[in-house]
Design a protein that fits this description.
Blueprint lengths: L1 E3 L13 E5 L12 H15 L5 E11 L3 E3 L15 H5 L8 H13 L5 E3 L6 H10 L7 E7 L4 H10 L8 E7 L17 H16 L2 H5 L1 H4 L3 H4 L8 H9 L3 E7 L2 E2 L3 E2 L2 E6 L2
Parallel strand pairs: 1-8, 2-7, 3-6, 3-7, 4-5
Antiparallel strand pairs: 2-11, 8-11, 9-10
Helix pairs in contact: 5-10
Length: 277
């Protein structure tokens, strides 16, 4: 894996990239910063490159389940799973259709990999899914399937979930890990401020590991990355990165869409993982 300096990358021919996005705070839905427009531009380029794109499979830390679960509903609701934010956020809807047939493909692949995956027909879209998707695909016309983050899973477990779905990328499906490059909300004070030094140190260590293709270091980030425990007091918002890495496989470029830091402590890194030229 190699990290490119391109701020916005155009997807390559052939296999659909995997994608990691930082969804930040729920305010990202209306306070898009630089990252929201970058996602929109990349989503437009992706659809131009892959006009047959048939759906999105996304993991968000805001759906944690006991075991492996897959959204199977035909029209998931938009869940405003947060409190204390401006009323405008609660009026937002993301009416993308579900994809029951694609969900069955996901279930079959996970089960073939030895995972006791089960469907959930009632699951709504949580904000870890619909907020970044609002920027990526504002028309809300691409079918979406969510995969739960299993309670107690570690980086290797989540990587295996993504790896089980790797073949979908050659079948017109975008696989997305939606989390946050840093996520210490105890340090959230709002407003514009300079990025905290630990946020930059952690984020650029991850980028350097991607550049080296150093999957063992990434899997051991908790022990090896600088300030890992401050960047992620709990690892739930970092684990979706490994879902994207698993779907991507080994021989891939990390093409950065954004390295923005919001509110001084939320690194909004987003990057596509795509085949090397």
């Amino acid at each position: 894996m190699n990290a490119s300096a391109n701020p916005v990358a155009t997807p390559t021919q052939g296999t659909v990239p995997a994608l990691f996005v930082s969804h930040g705070a729920p305010l990202f839905a209306v306070d898009a910063g630089e990252t929201g427009p970058a996602l929109t531009r990349w989503g437009q380029a992706l659809r131009a490159q892959f006009p047959g794109l048939r759906g999105v499979v996304v993991m968000s830390p805001h759906w944690m389940a006991h075991g492996v679960r897959v959204m199977t509903g035909a029209q998931p609701a938009t869940w405003h799973d947060f409190g204390g934010f401006p009323s405008a956020l609660y009026a937002l809807q993301y009416p993308a259709p579900g994809a029951p047939a694609l969900a069955q493909e996901v279930l079959a692949l996970l089960q073939a990999a030895g995972m006791a995956a089960q469907g959930d027909a009632e699951r709504p879209f949580d904000h870890g899914a619909w907020v970044p998707l609002m920027h990526l695909f504002p028309q809300a016309d691409l079918p979406v399937v969510q995969v739960a983050l299993p309670v107690g899973a570690g980086p290797q477990d989540v990587y295996a979930l993504g790896a089980a779905l790797r073949s979908l990328r050659s079948q017109g499906v975008l696989v997305v890990g939606s989390g946050s490059m840093t996520h210490n909300l105890a340090e959230f004070f709002g407003g514009a401020r300079e990025p905290a030094p630990y946020v930059l140190a952690f984020s650029r260590w991850i980028e350097a590991a991607l550049e080296r293709g150093d999957l063992p270091a990434l899997l051991a980030y908790r022990a090896q990355a600088p300030h890992a425990k401050r960047a992620h007091p709990t690892d739930d918002h970092f684990l979706p990165l490994f879902f994207a890495l698993g779907a991507a496989g080994d021989d891939l470029n990390a093409r950065y869409l954004s390295r923005e830091v919001m509110y001084g402590m939320l690194a909004m890194d987003a990057f596509a993982l795509q085949p090397t030229a």
